Amino acid sequence: MKYDVSMAFKMLSLGATFFSAVAISAPEDVVRSSINMAVPQYSIESVTLHESTGLYVVSLTGGPVLHVSADGKSFIAGDVYRIESDGVVNETEIAKLQKVEDMPLDQMVVYAAKGVEKAHISVFTDVDCGYCRMLHKEVPALNDMGITVRYLGFPRAGVGSNTHSKLTSIWCSDDPQKWMTQAKLGKTVPSSHCENPIAQQYQLGQSVGVRGTPSIVLSNGKFIPGYLPADELSKELGL
Prior knowledge:
Elements: H1 5-38, E1 44-50, E2 55-60, E3 65-68, E4 75-77, E5 81-84, E6 87-90, H2 91-101, E7 109-111, E8 119-125, H3 130-137, H4 139-144, E9 147-153, H5 162-171, H6 176-184, H7 198-207, E10 215-218, E11 223-224, H8 230-236
Parallel strand pairs: 8-9
Antiparallel strand pairs: 1-2, 2-3, 3-4, 5-6, 7-9, 8-10, 10-11
C-alpha cells in the first residue's frame, strides 16, 4: 500500500490545529471548574482572560469579581491595580463597570445627544429622589453638549417597592422618555406591566457599587456616586 505523504501532513496539521484550540480553551475550563468547586453558592456570569496580567477575570452573579490564575489553583477576591507612570488603574473597577457599558440600549431609557454624540453617561436612577430630579433637569443641557444620557432603573427601596412599580410603568409605557420626565416632575405615571429589566439593572447597580441615586458611569470609565451639574459632568468627560 502506497503511503500518502501529503495526506499525512494534512492530518498532522489538522491535529495541531485541534490541540492548539484545546490548549487555548483549556485554562478557561479549568478556571470555571475550580471556581464552581471553591464557591458553589455563586453562579458564574463570565470568564475572560485579562491580557496584561495573565489572570482570568471571573464575574459572579451577586458576588465579587475574582482574578484567577490560569491553573485555577489561586484567586484574588478584591481589587487588582495596574501601575502606570501617572498613577494606578483599578482593573477590578473597570471590569465591573464594563457590565454597564454592555447593557443593551433598548433596555435603557435614552435621551440622545443633539448632533454628533461626543460622550455618554449611564445613570442609575430612582424617580422619587430629589437629586435624580435635579440631574434630569440638566438633560437638555447635556444633550446640547453632545452628551447622551442613558437611564437604568435603581429603585432605592428595592425590587417590589412602590418606586419599582413606577419604574416598571415607565419602561412599559408607550413613551418611556415622556413618562420618565413626568415622573420626575411628580406626576402620576399610568400603571403598566410587561417584561422589563428593572430587577436586573437593580442587581447590576448593587454589583458595581451603587449605594444611592443618582449614580453615574461616564463613558471614560469614571464612576460618580452622586449628582453633578451639566458643566461639571462635561469637564469630567474631558469635553
